[in-house]
């Protein structure tokens, strides 16, 4: 992000999602979860250098944590919008086909990921165990997809 660009405030995000179809809310949540997993992976890689005293890496980790927190707030807003429409979080409008999300997980897999038991602390941040579990699941899904589908370009 540019130093002059500012993120959209939560109130504007909440207003913007009010008119979106239910499926788009779920897809946006999946997109944000994907971004979070990339930031978490980046932080894990940067941590090695931060532990060795690299202040730039330590600063980047802190900036990523701020962005992750902002993204988690957006997921909460998406969840509130879905539930405000009378649906359960992860519940999808009936579909005749299983649409792929980002080429990896179908709607059913996304549903399962959002309706299963949560090990998330009440503060809105992922705990170490939940984060590790999510990363393991994502890696397993990626490995399964690679093994089944061949080469992805």
Structural features, described:
- The chain is mainly alpha-helical and 153 residues long.
- 65% of the residues lie in helices and 3% in strands.
- The chain has 5 helices and 2 strands, in the order H-H-H-E-E-H-H.
- It has helices at residues 10-17, 22-51, 55-84, 107-115, 128-149; strands at 100-101, 105-106.
- The protein has a two-stranded antiparallel sheet.
- Strand 1 (100-101) and strand 2 (105-106) form a beta hairpin.
- Helix 1 (10-17) packs parallel to helix 3 (55-84) and helix 2 (22-51) packs antiparallel against helix 3.
- It is globular.
- The relative contact order is 0.11.
- The model is unreliable at 93-111 and 113-123 (pLDDT under 50).
Characteristics of this structure?
single chain, 153 residues, mainly alpha, 5 helices
- Helical fraction equals 55-70%
Which geometry do the CA atoms define?
A: globular
Biggest sheet, open or closed, and with what strands and sense?
A: 2 strands, antiparallel
Q: Count the strands? A: 2
Percentage of residues in strands: under 5%
Number of helices: 5
The residue-averaged pLDDT reads 77
Low-confidence stretches: 93-111, 113-123
Seen as an oligomer or otherwise, the chain set is single chain
Report the end-to-end length measured between terminal Cα atoms: 27 Å
Determine Rg (CA atoms, Å): 17 Å
Q: Quickly give the structural class.
A: mainly alpha
Biggest sheet strand line-up: 1-2
Secondary-structure element series: HHHEEHH
């Amino acid at each position: 992000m540019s130093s002059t660009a500012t993120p959209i405030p939560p109130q504007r995000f909440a207003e913007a999602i009010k008119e979106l179809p239910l499926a788009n809310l779920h897809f946006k949540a999946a997109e944000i979860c994907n971004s979070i997993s990339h930031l978490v992976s980046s932080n894990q890689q940067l941590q090695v250098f931060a532990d060795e005293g690299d202040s730039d890496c330590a600063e980047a980790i802190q900036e990523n944590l701020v962005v992750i927190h902002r993204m988690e707030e957006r997921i909460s807003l998406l969840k509130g919008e879905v539930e405000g429409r009378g649906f359960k979080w992860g519940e999808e409008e009936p579909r005749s086909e299983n649409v792929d999300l980002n080429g990896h997980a179908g709607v059913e897999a996304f549903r399962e990921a959002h309706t299963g038991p949560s090990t998330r602390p009440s503060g809105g941040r992922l705990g170490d165990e939940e984060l590790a579990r999510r990363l393991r699941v994502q890696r397993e899904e990626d490995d399964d997809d690679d093994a089944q589908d061949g080469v992805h370009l």
